[in-house]
Design brief:
Helix 1 packs across helix 10 and helix 3 packs parallel to helix 12. This protein is mostly helical. It has twelve helices and no strands. The longest helix has 26 residues. Belongs to the 4-toluene sulfonate uptake permease (TSUP) (TC 2.A.102) family.
């Protein structure tokens, strides 16, 4: 009799998950997340973009954003822990203004997700995915003079955080900003880890407040942590064997196609 209670609870949890995503969509979400986790482990970014662009083909955006929150949070915790806390502390000391702006904007913009019409949301999510990926594929690298450093820091932080709260992804604007600063790659990776880690915590808090993340969608999000970690584990092991630049470019091209499909859905219904 005592042993039956956990089974009932587990059955109820699975029922709740299937009310959010029927089994075929849940399996589809797991497959997309597995791929996103693999790419995250191999090249250090793109999990939110993969989940947003891939899952958004069949699943409504609000559900996608809710489902990706725990995988994004915990994958970034793992990435920071794997890289070490020393570089993370140094990154905070130098780039604290950018971090603060991104985190505050994520909290603010997350509150508007439920108020945006679905078709508009597809376009809002698709346009920045395509635009930022195209910029990276073309290899354009902006440069910031010392005179424009502070205004660019503020503008990039506002853009990254604003997109982050709505779409769950603020990595591409951050990557372009750090490239424009022309800082060493190791330092760039440390800053990215901190921005992604702290930002994902703000995303969690923001969508607990917005209502997008509730008891049912939280269960879906928790379930998707499993394929995320499985993919990351394989990505970590195989990442060093890949031609990283070629793999990154193929990933970005896939995201461009997926983002273009989001725009199509938003414009054509």
């Amino acid at each position: 009799m005592v042993a039956a209670a956990p089974m009932a609870q587990n059955g109820g949890m699975m029922t709740d998950i299937l009310t959010v995503l029927p089994l075929p969509l849940l399996l589809f979400a797991c497959a997309v997340t597995l791929v996103g986790g693999f790419i995250k482990g191999a090249v250090g970014f793109a999990l939110p973009l993969i989940m947003l662009s891939g899952m958004g083909i069949l699943i409504e955006p609000q559900t996608v954003v809710a489902a990706m929150i725990l995988p994004v949070v915990l994958s970034n915790v793992w990435q920071i822990a794997r890289s070490g806390l020393g570089p993370a502390r140094d990154a905070v000391a130098v780039h604290w203004r950018y971090l603060v702006i991104v985190c505050v904007m994520i909290l603010i913009s997350a509150q508007f997700l439920t108020a945006i019409p679905m078709d508009a949301l597809f376009v809002i999510l698709g346009v920045p995915v395509v635009a930022i990926c195209v910029v990276q594929v073309l290899g354009w690298t902006p440069r910031i003079s010392q005179r424009w450093h502070r205004p660019t820091e503020v503008g990039a932080g506002l853009l990254a955080g604003g997109l982050g709260g709505l779409s769950g992804t603020w990595g591409p604007p951050t990557v372009l900003y750090l490239l424009a600063l022309d800082i060493p790659r190791a330092q760039q990776m440390a800053v990215q880890g901190v921005v992604y880690g702290l930002g994902s915590v703000m995303l969690l808090i923001g969508h607990l407040q917005s209502g997008v993340l509730d008891a049912r969608t939280l269960q879906v999000s928790a379930l998707l942590v499993v394929p995320t970690f499985l993919g990351m584990a394989v990505g970590f092991r195989l990442g060093d064997r890949f031609d990283q630049e070629r793999f990154r470019r193929v990933t970005l091209l896939v995201l461009i196609v997926a983002g273009a499909n989001l725009i199509r859905r938003g414009l054509m219904g």
